[in-house]
Amino acid sequence: MQAAPLGPPRGLLPGAWIIAHREIRDQLRDWRILVPIIALTLFFPGLMNFTARQAMDFVAEYDAPIIAERLGPFLLMVIGFFPISISLVIALESFAGERERLSLEPLLATPLSDSQLYLGKMIASLLPPLGAAYLGIGVYLFGLWRSIGWTAPAPLLAQILILTTAQAVVMVSGAVVISSQTTSVRAANLLASFIIVPVSQLIIGESLIMFWGRYTVLWFIVVALLLVAAVLTRVGLHLFNRQELLAREIDVLDLRWLARTLWRAFRDGARTPREGYAGVIRRTLPALKPTAALMALALTAAVIVGVRLAPEYPLPLDGELLESMPQTLVAQFEHFGLMSVGGWWWILRTNLSAVALATVLGMFSFGVAAVILLMAPVAIVGYLAGSLALAGQNAPLYILGLVVPHGTLEVPAALLAGAAVLRLGLAGVSLPRGTSLGEAWLTSLAEWARVFVGLVVPLLFAAALLEVFVTPRVAVLLLGG
Amino acid sequence: MDASIQTRDLTKRFGDFTAVAGVDLRVASGEVLVLLGPNGAGKTTTTRMLASILPPTSGEARVAGFDVVTQASEVRRRIGLLTEHHGLYTRMRAGEYLAFFGAMYGLASAEANRRGQELLEQIGMPDVSRRRLGEFSKGMRQKLALVRALLHDPPVLLLDEPTSAMDPASARLVRDAILQLRSSRRTLVVTTHNLAEAEELGDRLAIIRQGALAAQGSVQELKREHVGPPIMELRAAAPLDGVVRMLPAEVRLLTSGPDWVRYETDAPSQANPRVLAAMAGAGVQVVTLAEVGRSLEDVYLKVVGVPAPREEG
User: Would you tell me which CATH number, out of the four given (3.40.50.300, 3.40.50.80, 3.40.50.2300, 3.20.20.220), belongs to the domain B3-224?
Assistant: First the structure.
């Protein structure tokens, strides 16, 4: 037998670079990638330069220098973003395209590790668009400096460069996750809306923040993006392995398998509803402990944030309003439909809708949006408590009378719902070996459904009853009326 | 002979579907094993497991002395895989492509070029290294993919349907190239549907049906086992007129005509000379003595039957 134990270069990066080098060279031979990159690097910054100058001249005529002041940094961000949007296309092509063209298997048969292959493709998807973005930013800044003498402050420039890089990493790592779930570029492009929609929302948000002038907030976005990128990269690394890549051969939606898997996970081995309920208490509830702890921290933080916002945005709580409250309390309750079955139904429906909305948002945001949404009412309570305290009122008494009676059930319901959604949102982050993303997600969805049906709905049902029929009476008792 | 490839109870499941079910294989160094079987029988999955790119669900496999699961990287360094679809990058030049794969096996660029050129010459494509792969015909692409698999001089070659969907001339070129590889002490596992190709290339054949190994052995062994011992036909220049009674005892008379006779024997190399001697003794002039053709197809159809359709493969 021949002795031919040659191997790839040692180390993650040298091995990855072999893949990256080939792909980058291939991209630079593809006019469909080359032309947009050149256009976005050279012509687009020139156009933006012209636009910025015109806009600045225009707003100067109307004595609105603040708009001109904000426009420069905003266009800087836009110029950075446009070229990196190509990274998504390149990544989909690199991962899903390679599989579709059946050129992946020869690569998988080489001694390169899964991580080297993954990293190589990530580098290849990131380097050309990021290079174009940095170059575009350079061209734009040079143009502005030459024409109007404007230079970007170093912190702003660093912020935009890091933000651009973080956005590119998020898009590429997201594209890998998407590509791993498909066998064709077409299907991957369709699924890419799961990246495009949130990223476009993010860009709108960033634009508002930049025109608002709160550049510090952008650092929070950078941190959040880096966290998301880390999570997506971890998921991508898990999914980009030889087993996963070769096992998936069809994109057909198997509704029967889907329903069977979901139902099996929902039943969790139970034969009767009673056994199912026992399973929720004995198995599902303990499994929620880590995310429930996170939720408890988030809700506590929401109260603190609410209290701290009170002096910043003071409520017009004049003495007359508060003094007349005891007299008008019953009338106020009746006005809001409390102390009636209709009121109970309205509250229950609103709370259930909020949990459903939080679940949907949580599915697409690793649970983060759900947590934020569920924090909002708690933060409002904190804000009201802070405002009452500032107005010299006995805030704890108000909270005890108006919130605590139904809050004893509503807060645990929010906490459990949030914990379950957080687990659902994070389902793909830590996949058990041999479990596909779809399977893990369906199992978590079934777990969420068990918590929702078995605990959240009954708690909200009872909380709404308390809110409508008990809280007003306690409030009247404590606050007078 | 030491085993270059050995599997024990090799099994692969995808969810509820069993693609490969308890396959036991042993391929000696320098031997050519041909895996035969209908579409979806589990041949490609078996090859992928041997190539350490798909871990088995259960059972074990050792290739070139290494375990395909725990020493996957070692296995991949010692195998050359020709996939069913060549999977070339059509914008690359042949030389660049080979240098790219050479780098992944740790070959320096100059060494990869030298070795690539040497193999290209061996395979009858000496002047293609500057040409883009998009310009290659299907046969040329498959031959280049074969060069890719050989670039790091692997002791084990896994060839998954090397001539599928090729025109006869291209298939012949690729088959000749594979035949050249047989001469060296390199272990080959070839997957094919083509029975003539299997017979031509294989020292031994393994027939896989519905994921399980249904039969294995040399062509002669398989024929003997599945369609009985060899049948010989003797034709004489004149009517035999009762001479058939003089046939030696170790042959079994099957049927006869005026000037011909068919018999079955377990050991043709011993029985046939005695038959000829008996004929000569009786003054019979023998025109031909030949084995009655029983094709590998007969064996294959007997073993595989008409398989029930499977959901996946």
Answer: 3.40.50.300
